[in-house]
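Reply to thread "Modeling small-molecule complexes from scratch"

Following up on the discussion above, here's a worked example others can learn from. I took a protein sequence and the SMILES for zinc ion and predicted the complex. Inputs first:
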Amino acid sequence: MEIRTFNTLTNRKEPLQPLHPGVVGMYVCGPTVYDMSHVGHARVYVTFDVVARFLRHAGFKVTYVRNFTDIDDKIIKRANERGVPAGQISEKYIAEFLKDMDTLGVQRPEVQPKVTEHIPEIIDLIQKIIARGLAYASGGDVYFAVREYAGYGKLSKRNLDDLEAGARVEPGDLKRDPLDFALWKAAKPGEPEWDSPWGKGRPGWHIECSAMSAKYLGDTFDIHAGGKDLVFPHHENEIAQSEAASGKPFARTWLHNGFVQIDNEKMSKSLGNFFTIRDVLEKVEAEALRYFLLGTHYRNPINFSDVALADAELRVDYVYETLAKADEKLAGKEPTAGELLDKEKVERVMPAFEEAMADDFNAAEALGALADPFALLNELAERPKSKDKAAVLRTLARLRKDVDLIGKVLGLFQQDPKAFLLRRRENKAKARGIDGAMVEQRIADRAAARKAKDFAAADRVRDELKALGVEIMDTASGTTWKVL
Ligand SMILES: [Zn+2]
């Protein structure tokens, strides 16, 4: 399968050609752990979780590295506010982040390195850059000499003179040129510090990703990814540091996801218009949030709203209702007899999915392509038009299997449908103050009325429950209900 992907570095869509055939090394910038993660974080890590899953589905052996920035100004500030060590803040929010990611079905990367556990590698890398004449120590700081490195600006397509015009020198900076950025910062009182050849201090932000990607993936590797906001300066600086140190090309393909927006403005901590993942999951199913995030191509902005989330939740409910019906009808059987109904359409399900995903990981299109097969699955599970029972079962089983495989790649639809629907029903009933035992009692009353051929009384029960927001469904295995 040829996978084509948009590369920010070359500014075009091109085939993904790993350095070593069959193997993909991928580095994604992880969170700075000083607070709860918001929906913008959810988008980054769901996006690249699906990228990694699809690459594995396509047969690649993937090494996925996602770091934790566990030392940084914001972490130190938060620690000082709370009067606790910085490590206590970062460990707490690493645990909260992983909890959110687990809830969202984001698989853990192979390597999750922390900055504070890679200080020797960082110091080593800085020394290499100094030895090549591209960085200099000043006071207890070390700076990267941007004008000495020829390729600066190639990712973000910026030129040095424009950057120089906008650059500021903060008081206390000891740089030779406003464009230069810190690789190492001298210790300030009250901050965590490490010994270095330049005195006590701590790493600058950008250097960590250069050091950790080199350690786990090598100087040159296949995919580097992150949110679009990281293109400049973070990723630009990573390239400069890494290529300055090794003299070799850094990441070959750069992927960047678009922002989550509210009212067409970027959701961000600094603008104050953000929702934490935890807040959102109080109100909607985790899988609905994941479905919503995958419903827009990863490079485009996505508009976050209650309405869009509610739509996603309805869709996810519909999928599970369909799967529950299909599972009941199949009852664990794997029918091999009979012809496939709608053969052409059914046989296109997997190829259509793979083609959409191979075209720059277009999960939105892949989900769209599932609408038709779902409608067919629903029809076959509920009231098939075909009278050919063997063909119905065979087709049903085939579609069920494809949905499962596609769901595995997207990280969707993997829960037991019956258990999912029961849990949804309990949650919704609780939220609306509907007493489940009462509903069950009224369903029993209705069954008794029907048995006594008092259909008017039976219909009254149905209407009365409907007025409460409860729909009852008569199925082959008895009467069941759901909250509308
Ligand atoms: Zn990074």
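What I'd highlight from this example: The chain is about 50% helix and 15% strand. The chain has three domains: 19-277, 303-417, 434-483. Questions welcome below.
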